[in-house]
Predict the 3D structure of the following.
Amino acid sequence: MQTLARYAMSGFWPAVLVVSLLGVGAWVLFPLMYLSGALLALIAMQLGPSKAVQVVVACLLLQGAAGAALMASPVSAMALASLLWVPLVALGGRVWQRASLPSALSMVAVLGLVAVVAFYALHDDPAHWWQQRVEGVLATQMGRMVEDGPGTEQNLSTILQGVAPYLPGAFAAVWVMGLAVSLVMGRWLQSRLYRAGAFGAEFQAWRLPRGWTAVALVCAAGALWRSDAAVNLLVPLTVVLCLPALGLLHGLLRDRSAGRLYLGLLYAALLVMPHLAMILAGISLLDSWMDFRGRARKSE
């Protein structure tokens, strides 16, 4: 990956070529989109947002051309890429200006909350809106199954009625996760290629401002208005708030003999049980008040 990043950073056209190819490859293997976003974030962090804007404009035009040729839908191809690439250029520019990854990741959390609130503001019944769209997609993709089983359509509708109220938060969480993963990868690449040790030091030292506790409480209080709204606000927020806890654990376990084993088990558990991120988010909020790093240093 470092070799790919080094090539992308060698000039304008190499950057456009690599990012565009990864963007097209993401139509088949979606995680490649996160790698393309990481390279754009790296360009913005290292060379500034103006250079990154030039690259992203050229890449979006190529995405549209590829979409027209391969999918007969240039707008869809450009829209999909824009959702990740455009915010990442702005967020990478923030890291370039402030030399701080945590400030950009905090903005990712804000973007997730704004996306959910805006969706509720634009739609009187978000659950119904999502249910209609998902049913339309399923009807197209699973037409034969519906024809073969007369009860299948009714069963799908019943399942969607239970799931649809929480889809705004789920999709916001996926978007936020993509932004956060790409930013972290971009900063890690920058530390490997240009600023040795920068990523590890700032990630392990990241403590949330105490104001985030109030934000989390306000989101939870949304249950008094609508329980689904509270969940939809907390899910994308949790994706970002769990990251300081991971940095905390990396800092506390880095010098332990079995530290890597414990961290590996933690990441494996997160893959199997993603809801553990809620516990990590709680640890992050507690750390903003109790300073576990400082307590650990005093006890040594």
